[in-house]
Amino acid sequence: MSELAIDREIDRSKMKVSDEVSIEIINMNKWYGTFHVLRDINLTVNSGERIVIAGPSGSGKSTLIRCINRLEEHQSGRILVDGTELTSDLKNIDKIRSDVGMCFQHFNLFPHLTILENCTLAPIWVRKTPRKEAIDTAMHFLEKVKIPDQANKYPGQLSGGQQQRVAIARSLCMRPRIMLFDEPTSALDPEMIKEVLDTMIELAEEGMTMLCVTHEMGFARQVANRVIFMDQGQIVEQNEPEEFFNNPQSERTKLFLSQILGH
Amino acid sequence: MSKQIAYVRTEMLPQQAPPSTSVGAIGWMRANLFSGWLNTAITLVSLLVILTIAVEILPWVLSPTWGGTSLNECRELLAAADHGSGACWGVIRERWIQLLFGFYPPELYWRPILAFVLLALALAPILFADKVPAKLLVFSAAYPFIFPWLLWGGMIWGPLAAAAGFVLGAIAYRVVSGAFSSLLGVIAGVVVALLWWLLLSGFITGLLDSILPIGLEPVESRKFGGFMLSITIGVVAIACSLPLGIVLALGRQSDLMIVKYLCVGFIEFIRGVPLITLLFVASTLLNIFMPPGTNFDIILRVLIMVTLFASAYMAEVIRGGLAALPKGQYEGADSLGLNYWQAQRLIIMPQALKISIPGIVSTFIGVFKDTTLVSIIGLLDPLGLSNAIRADANWNGIVWELYGFIALIFFFFCFGMSRYSMYLERKLQTGHR
To answer: In Å, how far is A250's CA from the nearest CA of chain B?
Structure first.
C-alpha cells in the first residue's frame, strides 16, 4: 500500500502541462438511486497533466473517472472532453470513448481473444484501420510494455502484471489523448505492481494526460503534478504532491495520510 | 536461538519421476476402480450386473430372423434354429426404407439423399470453421433455398425469388446505410425485401414459371415421413431457433421497455405452454384464423411452431450465458468505443455462447427428440410410422425391434451432437479465466 520505491530517475523533460483544457467538469452531481455519490464536482484538467485521485474507499473516486468516459452517467452538471460535451448522444459517447483510454482494476481483457487480437480489435472496428497497420501498431505498443513475445497467447495464460500491461497497450493502440486508470495495481502482487507502475511512468514521461485513481503514494509523489483527495463524494483538497503530502490542509486529509503512510 | 532455525539451501533439487503406482494403467485402475474396499466392491458388483445383462440381451439381439416376412415366419425361423426367444429383425429389413423416407415416392429418393449430403457440406464450414475453407460459407448461405426445393420440388423460380428478396434487402441496406445511418439502412432493407416478397415476387415467379418451366416434380407434404421428416423439422428448428433465441435474449435485456416486455411475454408464454398444445394449434386452430381457401402447408406450420418453441428455451439458455459474463467485459468493450452491436458481436456473444454451449446443445437434442410429437397430429414421423407398421397384419404385436431401431438412430444423432459440443468446448478453451 504505502511507498513503493521507484528506483530510477524520472525524465521530466516532456512532462509539460499545456494551457489547452482537456477535460472540464462543471458542477457535476451523480446519484446511485437516492445515494448522492458525487457532489458538486468541479475539475479542470489541462493537456499533459498527471493527476492522482486518492481517498478512502467509497469516496467516489472511481465513479468520478468512470463518468469521464460515461461508463457511469451523471445526472446534473456538465462534462466536456476535448470540447465535446457528454450527453446521451451515442455518437458523442463513442467518439469520446475512442479518444479516452481506460485501464481497470481487473484488466477486463477479452479472454476469448489472443493478446494481439485484444489490441487490434478496436483499431480495426472503431478506427477502421487496415488489419496490417493495426497489427504493426499493436506490436509497437506491446514492445513498449515489454511483452511482444506473448502476442499470440491468451490473457488467461499471462500473469496479472502482464495482463495489466496488455490492457495499457490495448488502450494505447487507439492513440488516446487521455488515459484513465482505475486502481490499476490494486489486484496485483507487489512484484507485479512495479512493472505496471514503470509502464505508467514511461507513459507520463511521454507527456500523456493521465488521471489515476491509486493508492500508490510513491507514484503520486514522483509522477503526479496534482493530487486530488476525495471524501464522501466531494473533492476535499487538491494540491501539488509535495505540498499535499508534507503540508495537508484539511483534517480529513491529515487523517487519511497518517493512516496510509503511517506504518 | 536464531542460529538454530537459520537454514540456507545451497543447491536446488531436480525434478523427479512420480512413483510407478500412480501413473499409467495401474495407476489409473488404482485411482478409479480399486481405491478402497468400498470402491472395489462396487466395481465388482457393477461388472457382474453388466455381464448378466449382456448375457441375457445378446442372444436376443443376435437372432437369425433377418429373413422373416411376418411375425409368424420369424417364430418358425427361431424354432428351426432352436434359438429360444429372439428379436424379429425381419420387420426392420422389410420396412427400414419406409422408416427413413415415409411415403416419399421411391423413384425420387435421390432428392432427400442429395439434400442431406449437401446439408453435411453446408454445415461443414460452420461446424469445423478451422478445418474447412471459409469459401464454402457461400454454399451454406445458398443452402436454405436449395433444401426445400430439393425436398418439395416445384419450379426453381420460387426459391430463387425468395433468395432475391434477401439480396435486394442487402443492397438497400448497403445503399441507405452508406448515405444515412445504419438504423435507416436496416429499415430500408427490411421494407424493400418485404415489398419484393409480398407484391412483386409472386407475379414475377408466375411469369417465369410460364416462360421457363424449369423445376422438379413436386411432392406433397403428406408424403413426407420417417427420419427424413424428423431431421427436416429438427434441422430447421435448430438452425432458426439459435439466432431467434439470441435476439430474444438480447431483447429481454434491452433498456427499451416495450421491446423488453414483448420478449419476456413471448418467452414466458411459450415456455408455459406444452409443445403438444402448440402443435394442435398448428394443425387445427390455425386454419380457422386463415382466410378461407388459403392452403398453409402443414409441415411449414409445424416448423414455425417447433422453431418458436425452441427459440424461447434457447433465449433463456443464452440469457444464462449473458448473466455469467462479468460486467467488466461490457465495460472493457465500451471503454474502447465499440458500439452496442460491435460489442455484442465481437465481445459479448462469443463468450456468452461459449459458456452456454452445454445448455444450447441440450436444447438442440431436446428439440430433435420432440419432433416425434408430430405423430400426434397425424404426421408420419418414425413413431407415427411404427404405429402404421404395427397395424399391419403381418407385424401385429411387434414392439421392441421397431422402437429399438428408432431409438438407436435417435441415439446416433443425439450422441453425435453431444460429442460435438464437447469437442467445441475443448477447442474454445483459452486457458483459465
So the answer is: 34
